[in-house]
Amino acid sequence: MRIVLDAMGSDACPHPEVDGAIQAIEIFGDEIILVGDSTQVRPLLEARGNPGKIKLIHAEETITMEDKGLKLALKAKRKNSQTSMAVGMDLVKNGEADAFITAGNTGGALTTAYFRLGVMDGVERPGLTAMVPTKDGFCVVLDIGANPDCKPEHLLQFGIMGSVYAEKALGVARPKVGLLSNGEEAGKGNELARAAFPLLQASTLNFFGNIEGKELFGGDVDVAVTDGFTGNVLIKASEAVAKLLVDVLRESMLSSTRTKIGALLAKPAFTALKGMLDPDEIGAAPLLGLNGLVFVGHGRSNAKAIFSAIKAARSAVDAQLIEAMGSAIQEQLQQTS
Predict the structure, then answer these.
(1) Average pLDDT over residues 323-337
(2) Does the domain spanning 1-123+289-320 belong to CATH 3.40.30.10?
(3) What is the predicted pLDDT for the residue at 145?
(4) Which of 61, 185, 187, 223 gives a 20 to 30 Å CA spacing to 103?
(5) CA neighbor of 144 nearest in space, from 251, 241, 234
């Protein structure tokens, strides 16, 4: 297995990428291809005793957080682009690697992937996913920001792609798919949700119906679909609330000798909670619907997050996610034709 890692993606690049790649080599033994500025990456590899299965490919340019509009499109689209994202994704496109990972500009990753890999037949918009912790595990939520404005057909496609990902990469048998809305009853929601409901209901998906936050976090569904604007607000609000709760609990438990004793006794429970809410355990989220595996991590990714991203990408490759998703989309197209 060959995983391509954008060495220039994270805020602290290339240190987390190099350290995470070395950890993955030690555990999995697969080939890792680091793409980026070799003058920055090579000294780090040499200082850490570069394992033999790490390959370095030089890329002269980087897509930064400041790249937007036409400038971003040109960097992503031009045939001889030398950005670390373009070079890395071209390796996947040409069959020289099995998956690409970046902790860089999400819009840059989406735009580059759209131009260089293209979307699957039957998919209009790739969907960015998130693994949201629930009472019983995790829920695949998409879209979380790639597509602020959507059509009902896009939500159906998100449901298909999310269901395949939950089944193949996470091992969920016949995943339940919910439509995020402001009420459980059919007919609730804005114009988009009301129009998407019958499409999801008539599909081959295991459609649960409309869901609110309590069903999502309660673990009633395995996949939740929504537009990118709502999904992005949901994810960012959830992360902020989770941090607030942890900070308040920590402050309260350390406020006196009595509560400190209680905190010590409750340490295993707090450790489990921290692990469930730790984004570094997830590492990166896939952009679903592309003709190739692309995973996008957070800019604040550390070595642990990069390692987790590599682990997630390996699972998707092992599960033959691209092939399974393409088959599911074509099946749905045949049903509706």
Answers:
(1) 76
(2) no
(3) 85
(4) 223
(5) 234
